[in-house]
Specification:
By secondary structure, the protein is α/β, with parallel strands linked by helices. It contains 11 helices and 12 strands. The structure holds 2-acetamido-2-deoxy-beta-D-glucopyranose (3 copies). One 2-acetamido-2-deoxy-beta-D-glucopyranose binds next to loops. It comes from Anaeromyces robustus.
Length: 315
């Protein structure tokens, strides 16, 4: 059973906790009224982990304190204490969580949002040093071991560990990029992970609200309709359904729209139970959506690991 084969991962994206605007860097670019543009959740990393979220869209940049920090575009992410959120803190929070939940797995999907090339190299070097440290502590899956960069690990290989996915070359992770199809209601099929797998992705973040809902539903229906669940073919597929939208398209904030989509999903009971739904990526991920996703997962019976999440969450 591979980790990517499970339908149990609820995603959360972009940034962590409360956020604020770094007045030094961005004074002239943004103002307070644009906060709704960038904030995509209101729980800290720890709270998200405790709510069942196991995937994080982590965007890194170089901070003047010479440490890698987390951003969403030009906005700095903050931790639960309102301080700059550094990558090292994300790793520590994940590692602490795994120490007390050692059958769980956390995926960090990394990219860089930093324009300066010299500083990009600094980000990559420091992140890879951090990764090394956690590999030594046995809290991190080692992609540099054997052929690990080109294959999807089994769940047993990554229990109690962080798995790094990389959206750009350079990071010591499994390279998994996301196709640029931001305004197409149809999901896209690409070859991925060194062409060893098929990626089915819906990431039309530029669509209007009703078209976006159509795009989301199309991919859900594909998964609902697949009758041969667990076939050899599906083992070689990674399915990612992004619910995320871009604020500027709507009058509503990301928060309003993401709650609307989540309600559509849960109240509309869109996920047929016992199917392989792939990864569902949502903004403002919380316990309700995580619970719903887990419970409709084909592997909810506990055979392959999702039961672990349910057990400690005590749903
Ligand atoms: C996050 O937002 C939701 C929806 O507005 C709200 O119910 C919840 O209390 C908020 N949580 C925190 C920690 O701010
Ligand atoms: C690179 O990062 C440093 C902070 O460490 C900053 O002072 C410098 O302006 C950055 N360079 C560019 C071109 O952004
Ligand atoms: C897939 O499911 C949807 C809704 O559940 C249905 O409308 C559609 O006809 C199905 N498609 C196929 C090819 O079975």
């Amino acid at each position: 059973m591979s980790i990517f084969f499970l339908a149990l991962l609820s995603f959360n994206s972009f940034k962590n906790g409360a956020f604020n605007i770094n007045p030094e860097n961005h004074q002239n670019i943004i103002d307070g009224s644009r906060t709704a543009y960038a904030q995509t959740q209101n729980l800290s990393i720890k709270e998200q982990l405790n709510s069942g979220i196991r995937y994080f869209d982590i965007r890194t940049a170089w901070h003047s304190s010479k440490k890698v920090h987390i951003v969403h575009n030009i906005i700095d992410c903050m931790d639960e204490d309102g301080k700059t959120l550094f990558f090292s803190k994300v790793l520590k929070d994940c590692s602490d969580f795994l120490s007390s939940h050692n059958s769980e797995t956390i995926i960090l999907h990394l990219t860089i949002q930093e324009n300066n090339e010299a500083n990009q190299s600094l980000v990559i070097d420091q992140v890879n040093n951090n990764i090394d440290e956690y590999i030594k502590n046995k809290k991190m899956y080692n992609v540099n071991d054997g052929n690990n960069k080109n294959r999807i690990p089994t769940l047993n290989e990554v229990r109690g560990k962080i798995v790094i996915l990389s959206r750009r070359y350079g990071f010591d992770g499994i390279y998994l990029t996301i196709p640029e199809e931001s305004d197409d209601v149809n999901y896209v099929e690409t070859e991925c992970i060194n062409k060893n797998y098929k990626c089915i992705t819906q990431d039309a973040y530029k669509l209007g609200e009703s078209s976006k809902l159509k795009a989301i539903t199309k991919l859900i229906n594909r998964q609902n309709n697949l009758s041969e669940q667990g076939s050899e073919n599906l083992k070689m597929e990674i399915v990612i359904n992004f619910f995320n939208i871009e604020y500027s398209i709507f009058g509503d904030s990301i928060k309003t729209v993401s709650y609307h989509f989540k309600n559509e999903l849960i109240d509309g009971n869109k996920l047929t139970p016992n199917k392989q739904h792939g990864w569902i990526v949502v903004d403002y991920a919380d316990k309700d959506i995580a619970s719903y996703i887990y419970k409709t997962n084909k592997f909810y019976d506990g055979r392959c690991g999702s039961k672990n999440v349910i057990d400690f969450l005590n749903y």
